[in-house]
Amino acid sequence: MVTRSGGICVVCLLVLACAEEKRLGKVGDFCSDDKDCEEGLCFESKCLDPDGDEDGDGLKNGVEKHILGTNPMQGDTDGDGVNDYIEVGGDINAPLDTDGDGVIDALESQTADADKDCLPDQFDPHNNSPDKEMEKEIAKVHCEKNGGVCKDKVEQIVASCEDGNPKCDYGQVDGYEEDETTCDGIDNDCDGETDEGLDGGPCEITNSYGTCTGALKCEGGKALCEGQTQKRINAMALTMTAMG
Questions:
Q1: Where are the domains of the chain?
Q2: What is the pTM of this model?
Q3: Residue with more model confidence, 212 or 242
């Protein structure tokens, strides 16, 4: 008499053998979980080397997935144009969090503004609700300039937010000029240039012989009027008369 139990046992052994022989994925192979990979790291259905750097951002794949929560296959996880390594800072165990909201800078954009309050998410502790009375923060983010009379004058800058667009008023900044009008060797309009656009205006040169029209030239913070003097003009006229 033949029983079926022997056949069933053989089938069971074959199934177990197949399970035991299941090959773990190598780096680059398809996976659905970390345990599917030889190196123990699966991300977006791909086995990765934990000590490798798939996106070339300076952070190890394993650190990005398991410690930081950033994307090991994307060098700029939050898409703000700044590399993840830079936004993390020098300590992966204490990554930068500018606004102190518990979300690290590498995961919060410097440019996106979810609640349209003119504070980019990385600088906004409340991304989903507009902040009030944050004019100084808006001024720091959007209005502060590093040169000229505006340098370190954020307290004198009046900032506001209109329909999600930041507005900067520099009218209270000492010495500020919307357009350069003073030849003084100072960047009065805070655009990084000094006394630009001031050359070529009309001016007058006056001496004991009379007055002549010249062209203004701003040089070394001093306004100079360049042109012929009346004495020189008289001398030229006498020469031409003699030649005539």
A1: 24-131, 133-197, 199-244
A2: 0.67
A3: 212
